[in-house]
Amino acid sequence: MALPDPASALCAFLLMFCGGPPIHAGKHDHIEARADTPQLNWSDLGMNGLPTGTVTLLLADIEGSTRLWDNQPDQAAAAITQLDQILAEVIAAHDGVRPVEQGEGDSFVVAFARASDAVACALALQRAPLAPIRLRIGLHTSEVRMRDPNDPTNYIGPTINRTARLRELAHGSQTVLSGATEQLVLDQLPAGAWLSDLGTHPLRDLPRPERVVQLCHPDLCNEFPALRLSKAAATHGLPVQLTNFVGRDAGMAHVRQLLAEQRLVTLTGAGGVGKTRLAVQIAGEVAGEYDGGVWWVDLASVTDPDAVPISMTRALGLPNQPGRSTVDTLLRFVAGRQMLIVLDNCEHLLDTIAESVLPLLGASSSFTLLAT
């Protein structure tokens, strides 16, 4: 007896569960959809729709939700109801799947088999009429792990943890992507959308820093304050010291006072007097005072004056951007950021620093430079 081809077998299987008149196995090309045929619910068949393997996760939460509930409870309830309705429609339109566990409080998780679908979903959510709700969204792509292989309804492990830490960096109405997701969607962005490089940053409690880019679109707010780096992740490239810092309290206090009052502070002195050690100690102590972090740039090995801006972009984790000068890349990065950059061992490059680095001070009124 001849066996039916795979397509015929699938049609027969679907009709068995979804209803419909009997058909001949060889006539599947002429099947017409019935309006009254119910949608197949895979969970009813013991199958879960969560994608496995390499997956893009979207994690979001509501900025200031506690304050909204406390001050405007009725408006908050109506806004959450509207969010739930829009969320269901947008997720379905972009082939997303929500795990059973949605995180704490007002947060939610959506999984996508395709990174481009995740980005399109994030854009649709940010463009949706959700006021007064403002979503913080993080997107990351990597291999996922199921909490229970026998009940694959939730994710656990490094991928979802990294996505959550990435989301922590964002402000309300801002969507940030990891470097892994960026590489997958560069050529598949929604119409009119583009990505803005925000640099490489450490993530709370995670050993590896992350490249961060922002999803931008003419319909969205694209200008935000510096990323919300935790105090524990506020120092970038600061040299590890193997000895305790003893004494020099007066000098420390004086330099800290200067940093509070001036935007350019220079430590001078003969070689070996301890300028670098003092700068390291100060940078570590004041890191929590700069929302944009403290960044260390060692220029000791730089002999070509033209390489100073390049060394700075590398220390800041900024990639080369075609069509944009290195100095312009630096200017765009520091603009609006409350940050401290320490230029160590720069005495042999003073002319270059005056020409290409000092203009950075004019790009941001909250940017401070400490040089040794």
Automatic annotation (TrEMBL):
Name by which UniProt lists this protein: Guanylate cyclase domain-containing protein
Stretches assigned to the Guanylate cyclase domain: 56-167
A molecular function GO annotation: ADP binding
Record-level GO BP terms: cyclic nucleotide biosynthetic process; intracellular signal transduction
High-level lineage: Bacteria, Bacillati, Actinomycetota, Actinomycetes, Mycobacteriales
Stored PROSITE patterns: GUANYLATE_CYCLASE_2
